[in-house]
């Protein structure tokens, strides 16, 4: 991978989403990106750039060996922005709900089995009116985290429609994971864990329940994705096969226990 600085997202376009605090490497892609345009972040090769074998420099000045694009999708209000802020900054965006406008991205470099993997994480707006913007970004996503809110039945019922949309717009080989968020709100839960597990099994996707508020399983969700993508792109000869489903089953924490 040639030594390059990941381009910053350009400003401009509609008002940037108010939900993400200004931060290093925040890409503020124009909310109404022209149909079919690629993101304002650099295009990332399908294999994450494994071929070059030399580290690159991310916009936050961190070296990385591989880079992948991950998208957060799901109904408005399920917790996509909060999950990203929890993962990136280790904080919970409490207070009033500020809906994402258009799309935003944050970068985070994590180390997976000694390899530095940069995740360029796209936080999409769940509101229907931004759906056409989101469609333009599916094309080069390497992985998708599909969220519903365990306290909101409609967000779970809409998962089928999200899966149809993903099937239509995303690549065949996209890595997909289903997340039931807000599991800390036990008293308000209306979607049982078994319902999520059953749906995930039906579609053959890994599943876990998370909480952006407590942090439960948030690190695990992104680490599992990074491991899967790294193993796909760097098939080292004597490396044991990585099985995403098995890894998630082994590592996932129940909502009854401590933080992730
Ligand atoms: N209890 C609890 N509340 C959460 C959690 N995650 C998000 N919330 C709250 O749910 C509301 C919506 O969260 P967001 O992250 O903004 O939702 P979103 O999916 O980004 O919504 P859009 O940007 O409109 O698509 C906010 O008031 C958050 O505080 C969680 O894990 N637990
Ligand atoms: Mg949001």
List keywords for this structure.
single chain, 260 residues, alpha/beta, Rossmann fold, 6-stranded mixed beta sheet, 8 strands, 19% strand, disordered N terminus, binds guanosine-5'-triphosphate, binds magnesium ion
Walkthrough of the structure:
There is one protein chain. 45% of the residues are buried. Strand 4 (103-112) and strand 5 (115-124) form a beta hairpin. Helix 6 runs antiparallel to helix 7 (244-251). This protein has 7 helices and 8 strands. By secondary structure, the protein is α/β, with parallel strands linked by helices. The chain is globular, with a radius of gyration of 17 Å. It has a single domain, classed as Rossmann fold, CATH 3.40.50. The longest helix is centred in the last third of the chain and has 16 residues, at 218-233. Magnesium ion is lined by residues 19, 80-81, 100, 123.
Produce a short descriptive summary.
With 260 residues, the chain is α/β, with parallel strands linked by helices.
Largest sheet properties: 6 strands, mixed
* Strand line-up in the sheet with most strands: 4-5-3-6-7-8
Ligands and ions found:
guanosine-5'-triphosphate, magnesium ion
How large is the count of helical segments? 7
Which outline best applies?
A: globular
> Helix fraction?
25-40%
Which value, in Å, is the CA radius of gyration?
Answer: 17 Å
Please, what is the CATH homologous superfamily? P-loop containing nucleotide triphosphate hydrolases
Number of domains: 1
First and last CA, distance? 33 Å
List the helices and strands and how they pair.
Blueprint: E1 56-57, E2 63-64, E3 66-74, H1 80-89, E4 103-112, E5 115-124, H2 131-138, E6 143-149, H3 153-157, H4 159-169, E7 175-181, H5 193-203, E8 207-209, H6 218-233, H7 244-251
Parallel strand pairs: 3-5, 3-6, 6-7, 7-8
Antiparallel strand pairs: 1-2, 4-5
Helix pairs in contact: 6-7
This protein binds guanosine-5'-triphosphate and magnesium ion.
EC number: 3.6.5.2
Biased composition (Low complexity): 15-42
Enzyme class: hydrolase
